[in-house]
C-alpha cells in the first residue's frame, strides 16, 4: 500500500527524453579524450595528487612559463598560504623571495584571446549573465564574444589561474584554484585550465580566519606543495590514466540537454535551464593498458 | 620605475562608487542580527562545529521535526555517509533502522510556501534563470514567484535541506548540505536553512569514489555525527556568538550594488551583474558579552 501511494505521488518522467545516467551508459569510447601529458600538471600535496589539465591555446605565455617553473622545481617547498572558504586556494611564494633565482618573468595578460582556430566552441545554449555566449572549449567551461572574436576560460569551480597585482601584466608565478564559481573574475585574470581530479584535496585545506581575505596568519596551517610536475616528464606507468569527456562530442551535447530537461521522475519542477558552472564535465580513470 | 609603470597599467577605480570593503567598514551595528537560538542548530563532527541557521517560516513542519529529532538525540552516532565532491554531503541513518524508535514521520513537502507575512524579501535586482525573482529572506538566498505569491530558499552553497525518495512527501530524517550551488534542486526538495559557519568541515569530508553518486562504500570513510543540538538547549556561554548581516538592511543593499559594480581598480572588466549564489552574506563572531 505504501509503495502504491508513493507511486501516485511521484512526478512523471518525461517520456522519450533520456536522463544523464542513460546517456552516460550509452557513451561511445570516442566521446572520451585523454589529455596530452604535456598539458597535464600534477600538484602533489600531503593528502594526495591534484590533476590539472591546461589549455595552452587559451593562455600560451602563461602555460609555457608554468611548465618552465614546474621543470625547474620552482614550486617545491612552497605552500598554499591563502585559502578562503568558498573563494580560492592560492599557492606560490608568499615571501616573493624565490622569484629572484628563477625563470619567472611578469607576463602580458591573457585574460581573453582570439578564439583559437584549432579548437571547437560548443555553445551551452542557455543565457549567461557573465558572457555574450558561454559554452565549452577543450573540455573546459568558457565564454566568448562572437562580435569581438575572443574567448576565455571561465571561473567555475576548479579553474586554475594565475594571480596578479593591480596591474594587468603582473602575473608571474602565483596560482589559485577557485573553490566555488567566481564568474566576476572572468576576463580579469588569466585562466590556464582546470582541476579534473583531486578537488577534494583543495577543499580540505585549512582556511584563514573568518572574514580575512589575505595570507593565513598561522604558517603551520599552510599546506605544503610537495611538487608540481608536467605529466609527460614521468614514465607512462606513473601517470594518472585520466580521461575527460570530449565537450565537442554528440554525447556531451545530449548531456547538456538532459541536465536542462531533468526528465527523471524525481523532479517536480524542471527549470529548463542549466548554468555553465552547474554543468558537470565527466572525468574517468581508465584501467592501465598493457604494452603501452 | 616599476611602480609607476604598474600604476599606468592599472584599471581605473570608479569614482564615487564604494567598494564592498568600504561598505563593510562603515556598517552600523544595526545591520547585524543574532539568529534566534531556537532556530540555530549545531552539527558537531570530529573536526569541529557546523552552525546552521533555520528559517522556520519557510519550512515549518520540517524545522519542527528537525528540532524534535535533535532533542531526542536521533542523529547521535549516525554519519555523513554520502559525500559527493561538488554536490552534497548527506547525513542520517543509512540503514533506515533508527527511524523505527523515533518521532520521525514522513512530512508533507514544503518545496515552496506562501511568502510569510512576517518576513521581508530583498530582491537581488538581477536576472536569474532559475527563479522569476531571486533575492534574500531572513539572511538566506531565496527565490519567489510574484504571481503565485510563493517563496523558497535557494540551493546555493551551504543550503541545509531534507533528502527524500521519489515521492514528494517522503522526507523524514535525512538531511544534506550543498557543497556547490545546485539551483536545479530548488522547489524539488525542502530547504530549511543554511550553514553560516563551518562549511570547511563539510568540504573536508572524505568523498565517495569518482563517478558514484550513492553511499560511500567503505564505511571507515563515513564522517561520524557526534551530536546535533538546538542552540537554545545550551547555556548561553556555550553558544557560538554568531551574527549574520540583515539582508533587509541598507548596508546589504549597498553590498549587492558594490558586488555588481566591482568599482575597485583591480577590475578591468566589470560584468554589472551578480549571481544569487555568488553574493556573499556576511557572518561574524562577536566577542562574548559580560553579564549576559
From TrEMBL, chains A, B:
What molecular functions are annotated in GO for this chain? peptidyl-prolyl cis-trans isomerase activity
Which keywords describe this protein according to UniProt?
Isomerase, Rotamase, Signal
User: Is the keyword Lyase assigned to this protein?
Assistant: no
TM segment ranges: none
According to the record, the signal peptide region is 1-20
**SUPFAM superfamilies reported in the protein's UniProt record:** Cyclophilin-like
Its EC number is 5.2.1.8
Write down the top EC class of this protein.
isomerase
* Residue ranges of domain PPIase cyclophilin-type in the record: 39-232
Mind telling me which Gene3D superfamilies this protein's record contains? Cyclophilin-like
Give the protein's recorded name.
Answer: peptidylprolyl isomerase
Amino acid at each position: 500500500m505504501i509503495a502504491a501511494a508513493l507511486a501516485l505521488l511521484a512526478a512523471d518522467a518525461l517520456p522519450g527524453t533520456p536522463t544523464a545516467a542513460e546517456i552516460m551508459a550509452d557513451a561511445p569510447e570516442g566521446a572520451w579524450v585523454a589529455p596530452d601529458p604535456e598539458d597535464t600538471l600534477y600538484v602533489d600535496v600531503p593528502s594526495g595528487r591534484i590533476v590539472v589539465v591546461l589549455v595552452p591555446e587559451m593562455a600560451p605565455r602563461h602555460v609555457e612559463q608554468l611548465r618552465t617553473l614546474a621543470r625547474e622545481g620552482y614550486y617545491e617547498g612552497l605552500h598554499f598560504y591563502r585559502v578562503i572558504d568558498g573563494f580560492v586556494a592560492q599557492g606560490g611564494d608568499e615571501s616573493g623571495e624565490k622569484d629572484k633565482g628563477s625563470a619567472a618573468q611578469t607576463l602580458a595578460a591573457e585574460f581573453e584571446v582570439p578564439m583559437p582556430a584549432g579548437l571547437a566552441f560548443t555553445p551551452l545554449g542557455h543565457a549567461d549573465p557573465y558572457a555574450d555566449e558561454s559554452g565549452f572549449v577543450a573540455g573546459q567551461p568558457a565564454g566568448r564574444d562572437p562580435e569581438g572574436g575572443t574567448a576565455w576560460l571561465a571561473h567555475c569551480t576548479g579553474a586554475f589561474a594565475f594571480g596578479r597585482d593591480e596591474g594587468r601584466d603582473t602575473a608571474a608565478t602565483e596560482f589559485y584554484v577557485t573553490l566555488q564559481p567566481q564568474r566576476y573574475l572572468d576576463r580579469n585574470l588569466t585562466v590556464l585550465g582546470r582541476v579534473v581530479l583531486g578537488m577534494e584535496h583543495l577543499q580540505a585545506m585549512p582556511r584563514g580566519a573568518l572574514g580575512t581575505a589575505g595570507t593565513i596568519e598561522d604558517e603551520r596551517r599552510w599546506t605544503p606543495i610537495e611538487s608540481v610536475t608536467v605529466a609527460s616528464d614521468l614514465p607512462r606507468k606513473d601517470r594518472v590514466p585520466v580521461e575527460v569527456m570530449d565537450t565537442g562530442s554528440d554525447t556531451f551535447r545530449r548531456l547538456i540537454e538532459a541536465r536542462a530537461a531533468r526528465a527523471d521522475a524525481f523532479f517536480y519542477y524542471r527549470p529548463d535551464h542549466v548554468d555553465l558552472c552547474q554543468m558537470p564535465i565527466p572525468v574517468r580513470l581508465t584501467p592501465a593498458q598493457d604494452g603501452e
